[in-house]
User: What shape does this take?
Amino acid sequence: MPAWAETKPLAQGEFATRGGGPSPHYTGHRQRLRTRFLSGGHAPMPEYELLELLLCNAIERIDVKPLAKKLLETFGDLNGVVAASEHRLLQVRGTTRKVFFQLRLVEAFAQRMAQARVLQRCVLSCWDDLIDYCRTSMAHRDTEQFRILFLDNKNVVIADEEQARGTINHVPVYPREVVKRALELNAAALILVHNHPSGDPSPSNADIEMTDNIVLACQAIDTRVHDHVIIGKNAESSFRTLGLL
Assistant: This one.
């Protein structure tokens, strides 16, 4: 028998390929993950396996487990991975624009679902949902974002809008623009929200001064600022709770 025709018994768990050699160790792994997810849900699965399932939609025919673990190692957890910027994601070897697209899609679904629990509801009855939504939208961003929730005279959220984006430690906000938009929406009250990429939600002197300026501008049009919430990575602070409003 010629040398090329010799065969060896396969080790347990290996499957023959068309070329006669053993198949990669991850053969069937994707389908097993999908089956486990559909039969048992996501709760028993570690974060890297959930991320593997997502990466399978963007990367074909290779083992994506190492990439999933590398992304989690780089960005800390699933929240960090999903919120990571395109620039930072593409610095991780093996990540592609298709991966970035899948992550942005997941982020969009998460934000829309969280937002749906807030819009057209009274903030007094859904404050926890409001905080959850703000965390989902802003906690893991690497630059500051300033958004405003506009309320009617019954404290029902009528609009949720991003007003500005900034740098890692500053976001420009103009009271004139805030007041202009409040008038356009006929808002009776506002809730200001922004994030601190550093993770520390403590208000800075600049945050306090900016809030005071917005409050004064809103008083001129009889619109109340209910609160200013600062979102950190693991906690948040409220100007009203801190006695700053």
Remarks:
- The first strand starts at residue 145 and ends at 151.
- Residues 26 and 63 are 6 Å apart (CA to CA).
- Residues 97-116 form the longest helix (20 residues).
